[in-house]
Amino acid sequence: MSAVTVPTASAWDRVRTYRPPNRYLPILATAALFVGLFGVGGIRYDGLTDPQVLLSLLIDNAFLIVLGVGMTFVILTGGIDLSVGSVVALSTMIAAKTLDMGWSPYLSIVAVLATGTLLGLLMGLLIHYFDIQPFIATLAGLFLARGLTYLISVESISIKDPTVTDLAFRTVHLGDYYVRWTAIIALATVAIAAYVLARTRFGRTVYAIGGNEASAMLMGLRVAFTKVGVYVISGFCAALAGLLFSLYILSGNSLHAIGMELDAIAAVVIGGTLLTGGRGYVVGSLLGVLVLGIIKTLISFDGTLSSYWIRIITGVLLLAFVVVQRFATRRRP
Amino acid sequence: MTQMRTPAGTTSVPAAEPQPVIEMRDISITFGAVRALDEVSVRLFPGEVHALMGENGAGKSTLIKALTGVYAIDAGVVTIDGERHEFSSPAAAQAAGISTVYQEVNLVPNLTVAENMLLGREPRRFGSIDVREMNRRARRTLLHLGIDVDPRTVLDEHPIAVQQLVAIARAVDVEAKVLILDEPTSSLDADEVEKLFTVMRRLREEGVAIVFVSHFLDQVYEIADRMTILRNGRLVEERMVADTTQLELVRLMIGRELEVLDRLDRAAPTTGAGSGTPLLTAVGLGRKNTLEATDLALYEGEVVGIAGLLGSGRTELARLLFGADTADTGELAVRSHTRRLRSPRHAIDRRIAFSSEDRKAEGVVGDLTVADNMLLALQASRGWLRPIPQGTRARLVKDYIEALDIRPADPTALMRNLSGGNQQKVLLARWLITEPEILILDEPTRGIDIGAKAQIQAKVAELAAQGLSVVFISAELEEVLRLSDRLVVMRDRRKIDERTNDDVSVRDVLEIIAGETRSEEDTHA
Amino acid sequence: MPEPTSLVQRVLRHQLLWPVLALFVLLLVNVVAKPSFLDVRMQDGHLYGNLIDIVRNSAPVMLVALGMTLVIATRGIDLSVGAIAAIAAAVACTRIIGAGDEAALRTAVMAMTYAVVVCIVLGAWNGLLVSVLGIQPIIATLILMVAGRGISMAITDGQITTVNNPWFSDLASGFVLTLPLAFLVAVGMVLFTALLTRRTALGMLIEAVGINPEASRLAGVRARTIIWTVYAFSGLCAGLAGLVIAANTNSVNANSLGLWIELDAILAVVIGGTSLMGGRFSLAGTFVGALFIATLARTIPNIGIPSEVNYLFKAVVVIAVCLLQSPKARALLRVRRSGTPTLANGAPA
């Protein structure tokens, strides 16, 4: 008798029904936070109002945006992917090593993307077919990717291939301002992901699984394919992020991207995606990354604050979002 | 039980019976050693609401799962439109036009109404979902069924009743021939039930065969045309609703020969209980969509039996008395002190104990030992810092294993390896060890063997004689009558009768439940 | 002969069999690679040798895993232990530096006590989020996992802080009764935890909550208090681990101290046979699990593989253990076994 979903046809419900943009609320909050931070920064620090600062934000965080996109897919199904930081490191290492060995950059890119995708596939299979909890399966992925990175090289390998360095520094000018290709790739990833999530059966199934996996199964949706699929996407995104990171930092190193999975998770949560799954938008994750980025920028503009404040502030924001989400969803048992 | 496939009525059945959409003949399903369904036959006709009736363990849900392809059938034949069919999976059943709406709405709360209706078969254009077309289609279906909901709204903004209607709309949209509604009304209020019935009637007019499972007799009589009554995994009878009185129905569901029952002796020691100030008083105790305001008084040394069908509110009342659920309305007083029971802890501190009907989910801690299970409640009330001394532990456990004849008599055996009856005895011991003043037992003898059952009944009588107050709930009326000093009868989530148990017969109770009380002469003063 | 079979059966069924066997195999691999691996010699009144290094190095993971075992038994998880360890180290080191007499015993004791108290508070914070606010454990502890290293850096002002206190460094490198102090501390904590859980009712109530939360609630168990206690205890354990790690290098690097120790600890718990689904827990199993991880770390360089590749092996272990515990994988295995009955019957009669 206790399993019966208790009806909640209270007046409160009816009030809620009349508030149209309910599901956009978290994303609006994040956007407001971003604008607020930018505004406050603009008043306090001179150079911040320069539009180039915004563009630089995109350039400097391109890899994190892509990482956040993949993480959004996973978290929307109610899962988590702890392996992405290590996969980024592995990607930089594979890129650096293969280029060092004289591979064509294109071949090298394919190798990186294939590795990340394959790792994602393996984790997805473990999670879905053997009922291994996502965090533990991706924990194995974390160890595996980091171990492979070390296996390739314990030393740092720098990237000197002219085609690649050229690509890394090539810019697109917009009047007086510029962006790098990496930022454009990141934005394109966001756009594609937003389309997939909103307008394809795969995307809607991702939400359905996050909402209620058992129901999704009973509705005859392709749960297995989708659940494995999100980890494949996350693996691919991590590899792509790894490539962007390689272009940003121009080296492969097994110490790269330690803890970057936490940044990605934080960005997704701050972007309004529910960690329990089913609610959120990839655009929110983009905003989440930008919020983290602007905090970083503000701290560096300030000069008196140390970089560790980023982590503390990130933690506080995480706390705020998690607690608010908790209370917003509490009425459901 | 030879009249299996004989239609009971004559008046409301057309001269030439139409062909059933689905006929299940002599279906048997066995789980391990348990025969869950034993040669059960059911016929579903187009344009009829068919109620599936039966108490716990009657086999209703097994039958539904067989029909929807969740369980494989061991023996028997299923024909659809006269053709033999075998379902290998829920998808196959769905493809054959059988749709199911379960009690817990099996939809996705975070997506829109339209998406929930069309998920998996959304209209697409150039590979992407055509949202406008999807909303249009959803609106059309909803309109057709007379459901007034904006398809663009998110599902969990709506109350359960609306979600249920959306689930039906989804089921109907696949052009279902058969719609199975498994306890759709259990958490709806009267208005919402009416809305649901409107939709059901509309579908019936369109020739859909609807299987309706509900514990509310009034609802069955309002909406259903035909019913199949099951008991202990067997078919009792198929009947036309119009030709069956409620008393007959209840008799068929509970299933004893009344004449035999009337002669059963009552073992309850009619003590002088029921005088003085009550130990426990509930005034207007209720909870939204669970239990209507109910009054109850419990005196020292008294056994109050609660009789009623499944879903009558008997369990719900017990849970409110124990604080397992919190009451929305009413007051509860223990020894004349008004108390708000916000959690079981509060109740336990007031020396109330409650053994749940759901032994497995709400009683047994399977991976712990018998001893730990027995001492759990006492230890919980002492807090973890004050462990029960080794000696006391051993003594208590040994005493209760002996007193209740628990087998194996091994305190270190794991609880999950015990039989149901022995688990139930351990749970009884768990509460007796806390030395309660009020003991609420919800179906303490369900699904256990005869021997254990008799032992538990004897123990309850003995405890009451020693001054313990007991609330005894059971689906078996003889048991309730044999044990209780006073009887509370419940139906449709409210108390409908209360009387002292002086020679109340099973027939009397059945008549009360069926709503055919003869007179008020022997009602409790 | 009922007696010997039942003994064999008991050994075979014992939950410690597999972890102990795995540890044994690992040691065997080492001996094959280097016959002198197990040699232990006495020097300056201390024992020296690979085995001694292993037990000493196992101390931090063992400590963290101890708290983690109890948390996991309640169906929880604590991801913040690495960050808490870093905070403990930072607090202790800055207290030692800030004290009047940097090298005094009193300084070391005060600093460590202070650090441990801070960690209990941090653990209680996690417990608050989980038990009172009802946030999923993995999410609740993620917050401190993210913020914790920042806090640790804030305490040390972002510097790698080096301390000079012989008493403090003894915590990692000292010997008592010929054995490393760090190991003795860890073993002491294991025994203390065993007493705490098995001599009081804590262990039973933790298991009850982990096995069947609803039945426990109806039996009146105060799950909130239990869960709170368990997270605070996990904080304490993580703090002690942080102190041992910091004492080992006489310094604290807030960025790297205790990095991924939460993962090692979870691994140790899982190897030890405690299920991630909660319920019954085994402290002895966790003890063996921690030794296994420390031995693995030692094995890899010993058999001539770069020690960084350790991670690769850990990944394999994680997957192997999880597959062994996964009911689905077991079912698959069983099907395959029953598919070849002739083999099973072919055993000598």
What does this structure look like?
The complex is a heterotrimer of chains A (333), B (525) and C (349). Chain A has one domain: ABC transporter involved in vitamin B12 uptake, BtuC. In chain A, 71% of the residues lie in helices and 4% in strands. In chain A, a hairpin with a 2-residue loop joins strand 2 and strand 3. In chain A, helix 4 packs antiparallel against helix 12 and helix 4 crosses helix 14. The N terminus and C terminus of chain B are likely disordered. With 525 residues, chain B is α/β, with parallel strands linked by helices. Chain B has 18 helices and 22 strands. Chain B folds into 3 domains: 177 residues, 3-Layer(aba) Sandwich (Rossmann fold), CATH 3.40.50; 65 residues, no CATH class; 236 residues, P-loop containing nucleotide triphosphate hydrolases (Rossmann fold, 3-Layer(aba) Sandwich). In chain B, helix 13 runs parallel beside helix 15. The radius of gyration of chain B is 25 Å and the shape is globular. Chain B has a 6-stranded mixed beta sheet, sandwiched between helices. A 6-stranded mixed beta sheet of chain B has the order 18-19-20-15-21-22, sandwiched between helices. In chain B, a hairpin with a 2-residue loop joins strand 1 and strand 2. Chain C is mostly helical. Chain C contains 16 helices and 6 strands. Chain C has a two-stranded antiparallel sheet with strand order 1-2. Chain C is globular. Chains A and C meet through helix 7, helix 13 and helix 15 of A and helix 6, helix 12, helix 14 and helix 15 of C.
Please tag this protein with its features.
A: 333 residues, ABC transporter involved in vitamin B12 uptake, BtuC, two-stranded antiparallel sheet, 4 strands, globular, disordered N terminus, B: 525 residues, alpha/beta, Rossmann fold, six-stranded mixed β-sheet, 22 strands, disordered C terminus
What is the gist of this entry?
Chain B has 525 residues and is an alpha/beta fold. Helices cover 34% and strands 23% of the residues of chain B.
